[in-house]
Design brief:
The chain is of the alpha/beta class. The protein has two domains: about 5-55 and about 375-430, Urease, subunit C, domain 1 (Roll), CATH 2.30.40.10; about 60-365, TIM Barrel, CATH 3.20.20. Helices cover about 30% and strands about 25% of the residues. The protein is built from 13 helices and 19 strands. It has helices at about 75-85, 105-120, 140-145, 160-175, 195-200, 210-225, 240-250, 260-265, 285-295, 315, 335-340, 350-355, 360-365; strands at about 5-15, 20-25, 30-35, 45-50, 55, 60-65, 90-95, 120-125, 150-155, 180, 195, 205, 230, 255-260, 305, 380-390, 410-420, 420-425, 430. Strands 1, 2, 3, 4, 5, 16, 17, 18 and 19 form a nine-stranded mixed sheet that branches. Strand 18 and strand 19 form a beta hairpin. Helix 4 (about 160-175) crosses helix 6 (about 210-225), helix 6 (about 210-225) packs parallel to helix 7 and helix 7 (about 240-250) runs parallel beside helix 9 (about 285-295). The radius of gyration is 21 Å and the shape is globular.
Amino acid sequence: MMRILIKNGRVIDPANGIDGILDIYIENETIEEVGSNLDYSGADIEQIDASGKIVAPGLVDMHCHLREPGQEYKEDIETGTQSAAMGGFTSVACMPNTDPVVDNITVVEYIKSKAASSACVNVFPIGAITKGLKGEELAEIGKLKFAGVVGISDDGRPVRSPVLMRNALEYAKTFDTPVISHCEVAELAEGSMNEGYVSTLLGLKGISRAAEEIMVARDIILAKYTGASLHIAHVSTKGSVELIRQAKKEGVNVTCETCPHYFSLTENAVMGYNTNAKMNPPLRTEADVEAIIEGLSDDTIDAIATDHAPHHEDEKNCEFDRALNGIVGFETALSLGIEYLVKTKKLTIERLINKMSYAPARILGINKGTLSEGKNADIVIIDENKQRIIDKNSFYSKSKNTPYHGYKLSGTVEYTIVGGKFAVREGILI
């Protein structure tokens, strides 16, 4: 029997409106009691003094790439979830652009089985919208749902056909499953970075904001027409934020996420042809960054996801046009949120935790992101003020593709507890 007593921490549980100095008692996999001055005795109880630290629900990443099956040279479920645990995540939802694609029950069952044997955090598969991510024929959404997917997405590719997207929304509504849209007009997104001054300066073909915003507008209209649940992934532009804000005012059932790189970096990070700053959608301008932060502040943007996208060094250490898109994100996301949102007073720490735990869990419909008594003991303990220098060589991810190497950031994960068991203890992976 695993028994843990966390004492004197600042317990923040946005789902229940809790923010105060409290104790938490865990027995086996369950949070048994949350309260003041809890007194449990026994030689088999591990007591943690969380004085001066934040005790929060384990973070939930609703958008990541674990690369298994098919691309284990970049990442696999074991190393990916180790990286997630080091970042304070206790649950992650992995995208379907694996090889083979998560468009059938067999691949869903493989991911679930592999996670059960080798993952150190909870893993929730996301299924494909279309077979093979080809955008030609819907995947069997009902079968995927019953097999255990928590959403559907063709992430990495847009669903070009409005008819197919409408049908996906209507089918997904039947099964109470969110449709996660990669909003991009492919014909307008054939460049390698944001279209503007920097792309001109570097002689690189640019990607217009319109590539994202046109598809955001289309999918909002389809969501309004069908009444289905639409979630827009990795929002990066001012125009997208404005479209989503207006849609919410009109009562459209739309949610969205952004990623830490879209509120902490601009297109200037690409200077010097830095391929670690190449991603899709691309890094935008300062005005876009300000709009993303405003959208987080006024809750137009519901959640923060990592879009953890590991790549082998050879896939980044090449010509900019040929380099693959994406960065690793698990081990920097929380610190970036604290540094660029909390320290700058754009969000309180309570609201940051909400956007990284309860909000994504609610969107996906998973029973996570809360410290309610009787729930699974998925908990993170954070030293909000402790600073660290980001060293990509210390990442637990197989891949090291990050633009944040050498950054000094606030916020460290001291403990990650998953189902009542330590995944990280005193900053060390167990």
